[in-house]
Every structure is written in structure tokens, then in C-alpha cells.
Amino acid sequence: MTNAVLTEERMAVVKKKEKVYVTTLRRLLKNKLAVAGLIIILLQIGMAIFAPLIATQDPIKQNLAASELPMFSDGHWLGTDNYGRDVWTRIVYGARISLLVGITAVSLGLIGGVTLGLLGGYYKKLDGVIMRVVDLLFSFPGILLAMLIIAILGTNLVNVAIAISIWSIPTCARIVRGSVLSIKQKEYIMAMKSLGASDFRIMMRHILPNAFAPIIVFATMRMATAILSTASLSYLGLGAQPPTPEWGAMISQGQDYMWTSPHLTIVPGIAIMLTVFAFNVVGDGLRDALDPNMNI
Which of UniProt's keywords are assigned here (predicted)? Predict the structure, then answer.
């Protein structure tokens, strides 16, 4: 009888979660800007995955005889750069690099931020120490902190991902800590403690799943920051190095030809702008869709 009751309760919880997911998706799809952002993100992911099929030319191979061709040239609809490399091909392969660095940086930042936030919010004794470390990281401007880390580790995309992830940790930790402080006061958490559940089980099975909403919103919007930061650092010469087809590096290399071949800076700039816009509007849409007080 007891097992039957527990099974029914579990089924009720599963159905409730499914209803929440369906409601969230429905509310998100009503947001036209968020839908537009989703379409752009899916296109970017498609470009990254199927880059060899979409762009058949080599993004690195030079052809000086065809350098600085204008847009809509024969065989090069976005033109070529000063080394004769196809701009469209480099944009497509640049999407792969930007998304890969962004996902890696955000994932590492989430691991560190969620861990610190959970520990700080759940254990009072650790809270003071962890928050002081977070405050110390907050005292550095984000881009300067990333530049400092890259100066220590070296200039490459792996170190860019590490630098951006460290920069992301304090914000994530503070968001998760706030959620944990609120959730751990709930009656069902008190009940789990009285039943003798371990702290690890309570944090991982009951607190963390209920703190997913702000984490998902943070991760989505942080992707925009990570991609923009990657482009900024590469533009400054601290990220991707030539001839890597990275959008920020492409703008840096094309700025000397801004008047004679403006497409060398405008095209990668538009790619960055659209990607950052897409992740920001999807993050805004998720925030509104996950808020039960919002009427969309």
C-alpha cells in the first residue's frame, strides 16, 4: 500500500513537471523576439555543425590573385579578404569557434558558480568566506580580469575560455546562493532534514533542481557575453591568432582595409551582433516565461 502511494505521488510530481515545461515552452513561443532569437541560434548551430558542407572552400588557404574581391563576386558572395580567403567560409567556421568557446566558458563558469553558490547558501560557516572571494573577483572589471588571466596563461582560445569562465563564476555564485537561501527555508527541506537525509542529497535532489530557472536564464544570457568577450579579446590580439577564422580577429585584420574593403569588418561585425542579440532576447524570453507572475 505504501509503495502504491509513493508511486502515485511520484507520478503526480512527474506530471506537474511536464505541465510546467509545456507552459514554459508555450509562454516562450508567444514572445516573437525570443522566437526570432531561437531561429538565429539554431541557424548558428547548424552552420557550426555542418560547416564543411555549407562552405566548401578552405578558410585558411590564401589566394593572393583573388584578394579583396567585393561582395557578390563570382564564387565569393561575401567577397574575399586581403589574402584572398573567402569571407563567407571564414564566417561559417567562425561560428563554430565562437559557439565552442562560449559553451565551454559558460559550462566551466556554471560548474564553479553553482558549486560555490550551493555551498555558500547552504552552510552558514562557509558563506562568509565564499562571498568574500566572490566580492574580490567582483572588484575587478570583467574584461580586465580576463586580460590579466590571459596575460598569465598565454594567448590562445583555450585560455580565453578559462578566463571568461573565471569571470563568470562570481555572478553565477551570487545568483545560486540567493536561490538556495530562499529554497532551504521551505517546509519540504525541513522535512527532509528531520527524516535524516544527507546534506548532499538535499542539495542535489531537492534544492538544485528548484534553482534551475535562474541558472538557465543566466547561462543563456552569459553565452552572449562570452561570445562578445571572445571577439573582443581576439580583436585585441589576446584570443584567436591568425589565420584562425574567428570573428573578432577578422575585424582586427580587416580594419586596415575599412575604406577600400568595408565588408571585411562589417560582415563579421553583423555576425557578432546577431548572435549576441539572439542569446540576449532568448534569455529575456526565458526569464519572462519562467516567471509565474508574468502574463505573456
Answer: Cell membrane, Membrane, Transmembrane, Transmembrane helix, Transport
